[in-house]
């Protein structure tokens, strides 16, 4: 796999970031801290897989924070109702895919802009979960729910392995299958993709369905770590995920991007807060630096787009 300038720049930035704790900071490189850093960012990575696909197809989904919360609540309620965990997983992922499919239908069949569609579903789902639960957290979950009943020490490496396998499968499929390449074709030129035999509305619908299913999977990886489920979880998740995807080199206008770049974006943005905590840097600087990185990425993409248009 050849690395582009964006990936090389991100690798350099990550190397510098992870080198900072070497200067008189203890505890950052312990196995426990690095493991927690990885585990904390797995849900973002899984959701970012779906967001990469959606943005490559020249769409956007800002409802994922609400879908994340609703799917987590559904998983908890299903577990409390006595469903075995395999069925809890299937039910939760199916619900996420249905929410994504609703977004996809409104965008692809009714022509409603994705930003408007997903803004609407974001508000509706967020208010629906508050109404349904009264804002109360879901508690008294069965022992089989937390860490899937495997215990923390056993489940953590399985979580990491599962997320990396899922990531590798999607990364391979996007580049090496006709279905994966169809997202790039539609995102690059909607009309041209139609002329070569693709059905753009179906491709867009598939992108949103995958986004919903992967958001549900991210919710499972997140909420099964805790004894209770926060019904207000997922606030700001869409911004973290979109930022990681854009920083990773996926063009916000569609047609270009890679999951490897997204992975680097997740690592860079996800590690800043932890590194700054160990360096005793004011937390306000974390958001400022993240914003600067995102702005630099957008400016770079804009300049690249103008250069490609000129040639």
UniProtKB/TrEMBL annotation:
Keywords, ordered alphabetically: Cell inner membrane, Cell membrane, Membrane, Transmembrane, Transmembrane helix, Transport
Main location, first listed in the record: membrane
A Pfam family annotated for this UniProt entry: BPD_transp_2
GO cellular component: a single term: plasma membrane
InterPro entries on file: ABC_transp_permease
Subunit note: The complex is composed of two ATP-binding proteins (LsrA), two transmembrane proteins (LsrC and LsrD) and a solute-binding protein (LsrB).
Role, per record: Part of the ABC transporter complex LsrABCD involved in autoinducer 2 (AI-2) import. Probably responsible for the translocation of the substrate across the membrane.
Top-level taxonomic group: Bacteria
Example GO molecular function: transmembrane transporter activity
Bilayer topology term: Multi-pass membrane protein
Transmembrane segments: 48-75, 87-106, 112-129, 157-174, 203-223, 235-253, 259-279
Protein name (record): Autoinducer 2 import system permease protein LsrC
Coiled coil: none
Subcellular location: Cell membrane
